[in-house]
Amino acid sequence: YLPQHLWWHAPPAAAMSKAFTKSLLLYNKILIRRLKSLISRAPPAPTSATERLPPSQRRESSTAPLDALPAPGTMDNDNNNGGCAGGGAIVCEVEGALLMSSSTFPYFMLVALEAGGLLRGLLLLLLYPLLRLLTDELAMKAMVMVTFAGLRKDAFGRLGMAVMPKLFLQDVSAEVFHAATSAPATAGAARRRRRCVCVSSMPRVMVESFLKEYLAVDAVVAPELRELGGYYLGLVEDEGEAMRRMDVEEAIGAKGGAVVGIGGLGCSFRHIFQKYCKEVYVPTESTRRRRGALHPRRYPKPLVFHDGRTAFRPTPAATLAMFVWLPLGAPLAVLRTAVFLLLPFSLSVPLLASLGMHNRMIASSLPSAGDKSKGNLFACNHRSLLDPLCVSAAAGRRDLAAATYSISRLSEMLAPIPTFRLTRDRAADRGAMQAQLARRGGRGGLVVCPEGTTCREPFLLRFSPLFAELAAGGVDVVPVALHLAVDMFHGTTAGGRKMLDPLYLLMNPVPSYLVQFLDPVECGDQEARAVANEVQRRVAEALGYERTGLTRRDKYLILAGNEGVVGAAASHDGGPKN
User: Fold this and answer.
1) Which of 20, 360, 454, 542 is deepest in the core (most CB within 10 A)?
2) Secondary structure class of 196 (helix, strand, coil)
3) What is the pLDDT of residues 192-229, one digit of tens each?
4) What is the pLDDT of residue 36?
5) Which intervals of the chain are annotated as region Disordered (predicted)?
6) Cα dist from 228 to 2, 129, 149, 365, whole Å
7) Least confident of 58-67, 162-171, 176-185, 499-508
8) Residue 66 near residue 283 (C-beta atoms within 8 A)
9) What are the tens digits of pLDDT across the range 432-471?
10) What is the 3-state secondary structure (H, E, C) of 483-547?
11) Gap between the Cα atoms of 30 and 274, Å rounded
12) Positive or negative, the Cα torsion across 473, 478, 479, 483?
């Protein structure tokens, strides 16, 4: 037994509660401090010249909020370097400055989905919570590893030109772009815009095509991906290696005038801002929220063609929603296809509307099937594989035939309306179209897409006059304006498997078609080219689209590197891969 003075006496309940509360608060403070140290914080943008430089190399530097972006002529009047008036340079960071969003995750996710497939995209999505705990530099390296490891360099070359610019252009800040590329107004000197140099922590292959081709940027400073045997290793050089590889001073043109920097929330290549920029403008969070996106009509080069299946901005939440939807979307696409094939239009159209596929028809005067001289030739712009089918359903005529080119045999077999292939032989194609119109005693119908290929953006390609040459037989042309809206997947491709086009289109949660029948064009004695131009003009006015002289050949040269001609061998497989 212990002596009485060594007995343990329990403290009062109030004292225990107070001690427990203090220990709990202390533990919470330690835990919060540890969590804050794990959360990656964007380093502040440079605000002054580096103090580590020798005094003889230091430049006077100042900071200003982004509301006071450099106006034309403000930096050139006090240029003491002897450069030409009206010149100078702008060094602009891509993430958080030129682009309104400072997050690079959507761009890597787009590469993972389009170049690596769904499994690679799912892996990148599963790693997103871990990426949030890493620093910006480590998170970038991890995304590069997951996205690019094992990809062929040649395959991504097309992707960088055909797929990436669309997503980048939607996020360009109008204020920063105009400030970076505007021409300073200087009195008594030639008007010359500043030299624009963009710096980015993303790999060069992701951003260079977008910046130089569509925004007319003069130079791009970005790290290169490491490769071996034509395949990317998933490794990227650091900023120091990129600086040593290229002549930064020559790229910036620092000797030709004052250099102004526009930084983002996280500063890539901070040494460039500190050493070469006389002033650096830093965005505030409130200013970033007030930014507006650059309007498509203000692009230096219009975006007419782009490729890829992803039709949304792949943020983490949107990508998660896509993966959740896929197990439901695939059976829904099969069900929608069965409804189209098995039921008449009077039943299939309302049933498809209940399944989320919306169709709207606008018709001033819809010709009937019994009219032998008018209303049997429908000419529409081309948005997807289902264009002729939607025109037939809106007109209520299952007898309309569709002239097709470069679609898969599977799509031809599943088509609920007659189809026939064009051969790009003018005489043979004209004879085939006349034969279709002569069916049923001259009451046969025909749907043609004179553009020859699809275009996703609000532009119309040049209309081929072949369909208008049929006007010599007394057939008037009915222009049809089509507009397609999708929310998850594009149902067209220039470099992928065309046999999957209907599946991707019908997997969209709520695809919608607008079918507008316009007044017939009386051909009379007009030339075929004049008739084709008139049909294009009417369709463009009805939709608010812009007319172009581009053709199918132009599209495939840009997106796929070929002329879009399908050979005889390609027509026997499950869908040509251009």
Assistant:
1) 454
2) strand
3) 667 888 999 999 999 999 999 999 898 898 999 999 99
4) 53
5) 42-80
6) 77, 30, 11, 63
7) 58-67
8) yes
9) 888 888 776 666 788 999 998 999 999 999 999 888 887 6
10) EEECCCECCCCCCCCHHHHHHHHHCCCCCEEEEEECCCECCCCCCHHHHHHHHHHHHHHHHCCEE
11) 36
12) negative
How far, CA to CA in Å, does 507 sit from each of 110, 309, 353, 424?
18, 11, 14, 32
Q: Which residue has better confidence, 108 or 575? A: 108
Q: Residue 159 is inside which H or E element, if any? A: helix 153-162
Q: What is the DSSP string of 318-352?
A: HHHHHHHHHHHHHHHHHHHHHHHHHS-HHHHHHHH
Identify which of 306, 295, 257, 288 has the alpha carbon closest to the alpha carbon of residue 85. Answer: 257
CA–CA separation, 175 and 69 (whole Å): 8
Contacts of 13 (CB under 8 A, 6+ apart): none
In whole angstroms, what is the distance from residue 69 CA to residue 90 CA? Answer: 11
Strand partners, 259: 89
Q: Is the pLDDT of residue 240 over 90?
A: no
What's the mean per-residue pLDDT of the chain?
80
C-alpha to C-alpha distance for 270 and 248, rounded to whole angstroms: 13
Q: What's the CA gap between 132 and 503, in Å, rounded? A: 35
Poorest-pLDDT segment among 34-43, 272-281, 357-366: 34-43
Query: What's the confidence (pLDDT) of residue 486?
Result: 94
Residue 446, classed as helix, strand or coil, is strand
**What average pLDDT does the segment 469-485 reach?**
82
CA angle 424, 425, 428 (to 5 degrees): 120
pLDDT score at 124: 97
426-432-438 Cα angle (round to 5): 135
CA distances from residue 287 to 69, 171, 283, 495, 501 in whole angstroms, order as listed: 11, 15, 6, 40, 42
Of 477, 485, 545, 546, residue with least CA distance to 517: 477
Which pTM was predicted? Answer: 0.81
Closest CA to 266 of 351, 140, 131: 140
SS3 478: strand
Per-residue pLDDT, averaged over 312-331, amounts to 95
> Where is average pLDDT lowest: 311-325, 401-415, 483-497, 557-571?
557-571
Residue closest to 386 by CA, chosen among 369, 399, 404: 404
The DSSP letter of residue 116 is: I
- Cα–Cα distance measured from residue 87 to residue 217, given in angstroms and rounded to the nearest whole number: 15
Q: If you count them, how many residues does the chain have?
A: 578
> Which amino acid, residue 432?
A
* pLDDT of 405: 80
Interatomic CA distance for residues 460 and 480, integer angstroms:
13
Report all structural domains of the chain as residue ranges with CATH numbers, in order of start. Answer: 89-184+193-298 (3.40.50), 327-560 (no CATH)
Q: Is 63 helix (H, G, I), strand (E, B) or coil?
A: strand
Q: How far apart are CA 133 and CA 142, in angstroms?
A: 12
